[in-house]
Amino acid sequence: MVFGVSSADISAFTHRPDALFNLPFFSHSISVQNLAIMIGTLIAVLFLGKFNFSWRIHHSARHYGLFALGGLLMGFGTRFANGCNVGALFTPIANFSLSGWIFLVFLLIGGVLGNRLQAAVLKQC
């Protein structure tokens, strides 16, 4: 909505009720769940002792470009699939559905290709 898209358009695209996008943050259960996941991850990393609040940049702009591209592709993939890996991989495999096994094959191929692409891009740094 910040970018000029109305809540009615968003609800039509996501097939969710329009009122869902007009709620305050803590009234929207999915937003609260996402925040809790991020806080839980931060706490887990802090317990590992591997996290520090250094402002020094450890990676090049190319690294951050790859991170952003990966996040965008994951978001688009989730949106196009109308769900996430739990709905596309684990649940169908547990139900002996062929779609889960097909998704697993393409997930593995995508992971291998993504790792090779990252290695090739970072090698050029």
TrEMBL record:
Keyword annotations of the record: Cell inner membrane, Cell membrane, Membrane, Transmembrane, Transmembrane helix, Transport
Locations listed in the record: Cell inner membrane
Aminoacyl-tRNA synthetase recorded as keyword: no
Secretion signal, residue range per the UniProt entry: none
InterPro entries: Sulf_transp_TsuA/YedE (IPR007272)
Membrane topology field: Multi-pass membrane protein
Domain of life, per lineage: Bacteria
Bilayer-spanning residue ranges: 30-49, 61-81, 93-114
Family note: Belongs to the TsuA/YedE (TC 9.B.102) family.
Name of the protein described by the UniProt record: YeeE/YedE thiosulfate transporter family protein
Phylogenetic classification of the source organism: Bacteria, Pseudomonadati, Pseudomonadota, Gammaproteobacteria, Vibrionales
